[in-house]
Design goal:
This protein has about 140 residues and is α+β, with helices and mostly antiparallel strands. About 25% of the residues lie in helices and about 35% in strands.
């Protein structure tokens, strides 16, 4: 649905936790990456095909993450992905990790589209950019 986040669910495994039994902070970045990858796949843009057929890949240029509550072994976490800004060569995602109604972590992620050989910025295909824009939240102030 336009304006709605894409949600991907993961379960916390032993390997995701630290010695205190809490999800290690860096693993939220992995969870967020998987959710973005699965959104791209669901939208019809598998990363292997993008690289092989169009010579494109995404690189994270910036990430800002806030850790609010701990997740623990066997928790089921829902990861939301929403686009808040999309341009020809970059996109900014807003991501949330939730356990039920509890928000565990939030992140703003800026990713750039680059040429696989040169790693120079390269424009996203028009259908991909259109798909990104359908995920953008409705802004009441934009009218």
């Amino acid at each position: 649905m336009p304006g709605q986040p894409f949600t991907w669910t993961v379960r916390v495994y032993y390997e995701d936790t630290d010695t205190g039994g809490v999800v290690y902070y860096a693993n939220y970045l992995k969870f967020f990456e998987r959710a973005r990858t699965e959104w791209l796949r669901a939208a019809g843009f598998g990363q292997q095909a993008l690289a092989a057929e169009q010579g494109l890949q995404f690189v994270v240029a910036r990430i800002e993450c806030d850790y609010l509550r701990p997740a623990r072994l066997d928790d089921v976490i829902e990861l939301d992905v929403r686009v808040i800004k999309a341009g020809r060569v970059s996109v900014v995602f807003e991501q949330t990790a939730r356990r039920g109604a509890d928000v565990l972590a939030t992140a703003l992620v800026r990713a750039g589209c680059v040429d696989t050989r040169t790693l120079a910025p390269k424009a996203m295909p028009a259908p991909m950019l259109a798909a990104m824009k359908t995920m953008m939240a409705f802004d009441e102030n934009s009218q």
